[in-house]
Every structure is written in structure tokens, then in C-alpha cells.
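Try this one yourself first.
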């Protein structure tokens, strides 16, 4: 649905050597790679490991577009090593295989894609290899009014937030059943101290683990003590 915005720029992009990939059925003009046709034609069998295994774990795995808080949005390089390290995120904050993780963050940011989805893939039982993974509940758009109903309906036990989401919940009108849920852990970034206190007072003794990291950085901090 976004191709119409790109199409007028197509000659310039191709002239500059930029590949244009589109997911969705065409037809598309020459020079555009239609991914759906390739996916339909692809084999279900995995290629040999030496084809897809990175030669160097420090090579670029993907680019994450930052939100632009320190300037215009820009693509940050993420290595294979950093991507793999995200598998351990939820275990570091105390989640386990039986948890159900609620995720309503954009999947084009590191928090949603790598810490959220990839983190769920990496959850396992201690001492077991490979990890078994955990249940991830994806919501297309966060809804403060529907959040607790979603938690009850899906059996949610872990919530990944950015600070504003918790503020939206605290600012909602009070309603019956706000403390009748299975949520035990909230993990994320940017939660203000006053909202932190109000969140726990209103919704129950939910453990909060605040983290801080950057797409472009190589250090992450965890507030384990609360």
C-alpha cells in the first residue's frame, strides 16, 4: 500500500543503485523486486547451513530506524551478534517459558522487533538447549481502554512498555476489575517515577524492570532493584 509513494522516485532510486522490494501482489514496473512471487516459488527446505550462516558475527544483520529524538530519524546498523544477544533479553528480566508476553510496540524499532519478538524466541527452561520459546501476544495498536481486557482474555503475564504506555493506563478512568489480572512483570524504558508509583498502587504489586539502551550503542542498563 506504500508503493504509490515510492513509484515517482523509482527512476532516481534505480539510477543510484537502490534496490526496491515490494511485498504484495503486483504487477509492478521493471526494476522492482516482487517478493511475493519469490516467496511463492521458494522451497520449504532449508538451504545448507554454510549458505546462510554469517561469516562474521560482527557483520551487519539489519538496520533499525531510530525515532529521531536526537535529530532526524536515521538507520542504525545492528550486527548479527547484537541480534543474537537479544535472545536473552526476557530471561535477563526474569521471564520464563510459561509466560505470555504482550507486545504493542512498533516492529520497526529495536524494542519491538529484537527485544520483543526475538526475546520471546529465546526464552527457555534453565539448562535446556535449544530454548523452547514463549507465547507472544501481538497487538497492532496499543489501546489503553482495552489493555486489561486483553490481559485477561490472553492470560498475559509480562508487558513490554515504553514509559508513555504506562502513563496512558494510569490516566484512564478507574473501572472495576483493574486488579483482576495475571500480569506480574512490566519491562521497558522511560517510565517516570511518579507514573511508576501510581501504576503499582492502582494495578497491584507488578514487578517493574526498567532498562535503557540505544540502537546505536553497545551497552544496556537494567534496574533490577526497582
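Now uncover the answer:
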Amino acid at each position: 500500500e506504500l508503493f504509490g509513494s515510492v513509484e515517482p522516485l523509482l527512476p532516481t532510486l534505480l539510477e543510484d543503485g537502490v534496490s526496491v522490494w515490494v511485498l504484495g501482489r503486483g504487477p509492478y514496473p521493471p526494476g522492482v523486486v516482487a517478493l511475493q512471487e519469490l516467496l511463492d516459488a521458494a522451497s520449504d527446505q532449508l538451504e545448507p547451513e554454510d549458505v546462510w550462516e554469517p561469516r562474521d558475527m560482527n557483520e551487519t544483520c539489519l538496520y533499525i530506524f531510530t525515532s529521531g529524538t536526537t535529530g532526524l530519524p536515521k538507520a542504525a546498523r545492528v550486527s548479527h551478534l547484537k541480534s543474537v544477544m537479544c535472545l536473552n533479553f526476557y530471561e535477563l528480566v526474569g521471564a520464563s517459558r510459561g509466560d505470555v508476553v504482550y507486545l504493542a510496540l512498533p516492529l520497526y524499532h529495536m524494542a519491538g522487533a529484537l527485544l520483543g519478538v526475538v526475546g520471546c524466541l529465546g526464552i527457555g527452561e534453565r539448562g535446556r538447549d535449544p530454548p523452547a520459546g514463549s507465547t507472544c501476544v501481538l497487538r497492532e495498536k496499543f489501546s489503553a481502554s482495552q489493555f486489561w481486557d486483553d490481559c485477561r482474555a490472553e492470560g498475559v503475564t509480562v508487558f513490554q512498555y515504553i514509559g508513555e504506555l504506562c502513563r496512558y493506563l494510569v490516566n484512564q478512568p478507574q473501572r472495576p476489575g483493574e486488579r483482576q489480572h495475571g500480569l506480574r512483570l512490566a519491562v521497558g524504558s522511560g517510565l517516570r517515577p511518579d507514573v511508576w508509583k501510581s501504576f503499582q498502587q492502582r494495578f497491584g504489586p507488578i514487578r517493574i524492570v526498567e532498562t535503557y539502551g540505544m540502537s546505536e550503542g553497545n551497552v544496556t542498563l537494567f534496574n533490577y532493584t526497582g
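Discussion: The chain has two domains: 2-50, 84-222. Residues 84-222 form a domain with the Rossmann fold fold (CATH 3.40.50.980).
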